[in-house]
Amino acid sequence: MARQGGQRDPAWRERRRSGEDKKKTRGRWGHTYAAVDLGTNNCRLLVARPTRDGFRVIDAFSRIVRLGEGVDRSGRLSPEAMERTITALKVCAAKMRRRGVTRARNVATAACRRASNCNEFLARVEHQTGLRLEIISPGEEANLAVTGCRPLLDRQSRHALVFDIGGGSTELIWVAHDQLRGAEPIAATSLPHGVVTLTEQYDGRELSPTVYEELVARICDELHPFEQAQQISRHIDGSAVQMIGTSGTVTTLSGVHLDLAKYDRQRVDGLWLSFVDALAVSRRLRDMSLEQRARHPCIGRDRADLVVAGCAILEAICRTWPVGRLRVGDRGLREGLLVSQMQAEDRGPPQQAAGS
Length: 356
What we know:
By secondary structure, the protein is an alpha/beta fold. The protein has helices at 10-25, 71-74, 79-98, 110-114, 118-129, 138-149, 195-202, 209-230, 248-257, 265-268, 275-287, 290-295, 307-320, 333-347; strands spanning 3-4, 7-8, 33-38, 42-51, 54-64, 103-108, 134-135, 159-165, 170-178, 182-191, 241-245, 272-274, 325-328.
């Protein structure tokens, strides 16, 4: 290496700097990414830039829109629900433009899978917001949730059961896990029940202990075929199976359990929650009035009527697979979308541009 007066050749410094700059523009590094997750109940956005150990979130948005309100009865998205959702998606689109997003994936799940007028809705969204939504299958939804939750996996556990209690469906994924191959989904199932659909069926504002127990037993019956097919209970021994819950239900229960004055993601994401504590909070919420739940800082008026249905689904999962504790994930589908986009960029060729 040529030196001048004991110093490195300035040309060498320039070549090194140029090489580093080129590296930063290859693969994932030259882009800002966005992920929109439009569910039955929520519209969520994450905007992120890649880092050496994953990504850094630079903007986010979440709004309860209840897109799937009434779909279980009518089979259609209502005009009011579509209007609420498009208003939220306009906010997402504006944030994406402001942050200079160059890669995006925008997905819709259960409500759009079921609604007979979904194509009309998707066309309106693209026309009014510029965002092109794609409807993903329950299987892809499950796999993306696992991808988003990988950082929460315990290295000592040989299997994981990951679940996502959504607004219109509940996804469960049975995962093989080892330190060499990482996490590999073995099987998944999707129950056609979420907090919105069950609340509409059972009037979740006030559920008596008897009706609540009937609901839990019904969900247990519907989980049984998945247990029979995968024989998950046979693996529950010590720490052989880890359970991860990623949904508004488990994050809400965690906030209530921690007695937070307001919801704090830093304290909830990654929390280990025992079944004893989870079920105690579930019963407590079940026995509250709608107004009492609405006043709780970790629930609020938008979730007050939905959370008890989610508690019933969670209790059914805990009864079916008595692992003893679960790890709470305030992450999932959106994070999986971001990670998968970055991995695709590393492999090439380029993906569609933002909003397409």
